[in-house]
Design a protein that fits this description.
Length: 111
C-alpha cells in the first residue's frame, strides 16, 4: 500500500526565519555559522523567493562554486554566479508586440 500526500510549499518570506533555517542547517552539517556572508544571504532570499527547494539548490551550487574557487565563504559574487547558473536572475518584462499596420487598424481609430 502506498500513501501519497500533496502539500503546497509555502514561501518563507521572513528573513529572520530563513536565517534561522540556514543557521540550523549549517550547524547540523558542522559548518561554521559565518559560511554565508550577509549580502549573499540577502541575495539568496531574493532570488529563491523564499521557496525551500530553490534555497537548497542555490546553496548546494554555491558550495560547489566556493570549493572550485577555493574560497572559505560564500560571498555575493559566488551567490550571484549560482543565481545566474540556475537562471533565477530577475526576468525582464516581455517585449511589446509590434504596432499593427494602418490598414489593419479600426477605421474609427485616430492613430
Amino acid at each position: 500500500m502506498r500513501v501519497i500526500v500533496y502539500a503546497p510549499l509555502v514561501a518563507k518570506t521572513d528573513p529572520a526565519l530563513v536565517g534561522a533555517m540556514l543557521d540550523h542547517a549549517l550547524a547540523a552539517a558542522g559548518a561554521p555559522p559565518d559560511l554565508i556572508v550577509d549580502d549573499a544571504r540577502a541575495m539568496l532570499l531574493r532570488a529563491a523567493r523564499g521557496l525551500p527547494r530553490l534555497i537548497s539548490h542555490l546553496l548546494r551550487l554555491a558550495l560547489v562554486l566556493a570549493d572550485e574557487r577555493e574560497q572559505p565563504r560564500i560571498d555575493a559574487s559566488i551567490m550571484n554566479s549560482a543565481i545566474i547558473l540556475l537562471h533565477l536572475e530577475p526576468h525582464s518584462p516581455p517585449p511589446l508586440p509590434p504596432a499593427k499596420p494602418r490598414f489593419e487598424r479600426d477605421p474609427r481609430s485616430r492613430k
